[in-house]
Design goal:
The chain is α+β, with helices and mostly antiparallel strands and 175 residues long. Helices cover 25% and strands 24% of the residues. The chain is built from 4 helices and 8 strands; from the N terminus they run βαβββαβββααβ. Strands 1, 2, 3, 4, 5 and 8 form a 6-stranded antiparallel beta sheet that branches. Strands 6-7 form a two-stranded antiparallel ribbon. The chain is globular, with a radius of gyration of 15 Å.
């Protein structure tokens, strides 16, 4: 597997337990400290209604663009390490409460479908909490399967049950 020097990747961040914004910041700090990885853009944070499993607190979500020399599997391992350091436990209800969730949304124009990794993220085109912050960073980035840009996907999204509100810059989100 050959990785170009500085492949652009988009990572989503989310939390709905405790200091939600603080946990998202821990995710950003973990990426910032990672070798062979540079943060190149950050979206704003949003308070977002849960989807799929609705009986839980609202989330704080955002997206980070990085340039990385890590291959997608090494990047996934890095994200799992950062999540674990933030207290993430992978048990319980799928799509349920978590201190920190970090997903690879896009990795260059790669398409990967294995039991352990799917790129682009298989539900990104259905998630306002991914598409809006992605558009904050780069509305022209193209989904490598659908061949539509993020702005198009956002504009054609089904709005059912996907409320979200921008967080204020100074807001600590503990609701």
């Amino acid at each position: 597997m050959t990785v170009d020097r500085g492949t652009a990747a988009f990572i989503s961040l989310g939390s709905n337990i405790g200091d939600k914004r603080g946990y998202c910041q821990k995710g950003i700090d973990g990426l910032r400290a990672a070798p062979r990885t540079t943060i190149t853009a950050l979206s704003r944070f949003y308070r977002t209604e849960p989807v799929d499993y609705k009986d839980q607190d609202w989330f704080v979500n955002g997206v980070v663009r990085i340039d990385t020399e890590l291959d997608p599997y090494a990047l996934l391992d890095l994200l799992h390490t950062i999540e674990q350091a933030a207290g993430r436990e992978r048990k319980g209800v799928r799509f349920g409460p978590r201190t920190l969730d970090m997903d690879i949304i896009l990795y260059g124009n790669w398409v990967v479908n294995t039991p352990t990794l799917s790129i682009p993220h298989p539900r990104m085109h259905k998630r306002r909490f991914v598409l809006q912050p992605l558009c904050d960073i780069d509305p022209t980035v193209v989904h490598p399967v659908f061949l539509k840009n993020a702005q198009y996907l956002l504009e054609h999204l089904d709005d059912e049950g996907q409320k979200m509100f921008p967080c204020e810059e100074s807001e600590t989100v503990l609701f």
